[in-house]
């Protein structure tokens, strides 16, 4: 965070001892001197904003194997945009995709259906908001199954952060971090396959 400085900063303070108390910092006015591609991002209300990239995973539901692990700029659109890209590249027509309520938007649901993929997205029904998922999807037993299985993707994120050290990247720049993500995903799948083989009688 000490490298997150105003874009027009000419103070000459290279050690990061500047006093930021009471001053606003945003991605429009500031950038990281160390990693210009990183963005200040807050995961949810009440949480602190951190300088980071975002990671997105696509999991195969039958065996829990990781199909893709993408690193992108941290912003409010990245999750849905990256999901659409991964579905287009990896998932064929007739498949279903489970996702949390952050994907319950009209554009994501409509574009998934247009691609032949049924969006088994958790309904986001806060006050003054209408879910994009209706009875056409929720009436099928497969919707409930997808909502249960989709939560196992948290195992992937948990393993990459704890065992693989991906909670805090050791690499500068999105390109190098993406390469590290592919290596991490390959290692996860090797471990997963070995456990699956051990379960075969």
What does this structure look like?
Helix content is 35%, strand content 18%. It has 201 residues and is of the alpha+beta class. The mean pLDDT is 86. The strands form 3 sheets. A 3-stranded antiparallel beta sheet has the order 3-4-5, sandwiched between helices. A two-stranded antiparallel sheet has the order 1-2. A two-stranded parallel ribbon has the order 6-7. It is built from 6 helices and 7 strands, in the order E-E-E-E-E-H-E-H-E-H-H-H-H. Strand 3 and strand 4 form a beta hairpin. The protein is globular. It has a domain of 126 residues.
- Strand residue percentage: 15-25%
Order of helices and strands: EEEEEHEHEHHHH
SS-derived structural category: alpha+beta
- Give the strand order, joined by hyphens, for the main sheet: 3-4-5
Largest sheet features: 3 strands, antiparallel
- Spatial shape: globular
- Helix fraction, binned, reads 25-40%
Weakly predicted, low-confidence segments:
none
Question: Nutshell version of this structure?
Answer:
This protein is an alpha+beta fold and 201 residues long. 35% of the residues lie in helices and 18% in strands.
Q: What are its keywords?
A:
201 residues, alpha+beta, three-stranded antiparallel beta sheet, two-stranded antiparallel ribbon, 7 strands, 35% helix, globular
Q: What topology emerges from the helices and strands here?
A:
Elements: E1 4-6, E2 30-32, E3 39-41, E4 50-60, E5 65-73, H1 78-90, E6 96-99, H2 106-114, E7 118-121, H3 135-138, H4 141-149, H5 153-162, H6 174-199
Parallel strand pairs: 6-7
Antiparallel strand pairs: 1-2, 3-4, 4-5
């Amino acid at each position: 965070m000490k490298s997150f400085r105003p874009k027009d900063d000419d103070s000459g303070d290279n050690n990061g001892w500047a006093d930021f108390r009471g001053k606003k910092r945003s991605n429009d006015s500031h950038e990281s001197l160390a990693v210009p591609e990183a963005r200040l991002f807050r995961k949810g209300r009440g949480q602190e904003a951190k300088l980071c990239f975002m990671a997105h995973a696509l999991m195969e539901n039958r065996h829990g194997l990781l199909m893709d692990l993408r690193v992108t700029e941290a912003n409010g659109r990245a999750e849905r945009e990256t999901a659409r890209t991964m579905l287009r590249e990896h998932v064929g027509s007739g498949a279903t995709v489970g996702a949390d309520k952050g994907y319950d938007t009209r554009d994501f649901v409509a574009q998934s259906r247009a691609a032949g993929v049924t969006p088994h997205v958790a309904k986001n029904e806060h006050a003054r908001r209408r879910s994009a998922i209706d009875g056409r999807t929720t009436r099928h037993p497969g919707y409930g199954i997808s909502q249960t299985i989709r939560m196992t993707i948290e195992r992937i994120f948990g393993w990459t952060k704890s065992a693989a050290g991906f909670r805090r990247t050791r690499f500068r720049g999105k390109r190098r971090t993406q390469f590290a993500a592919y290596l991490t995903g390959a290692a996860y799948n090797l471990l997963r396959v070995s456990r699956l083989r051990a379960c075969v009688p």
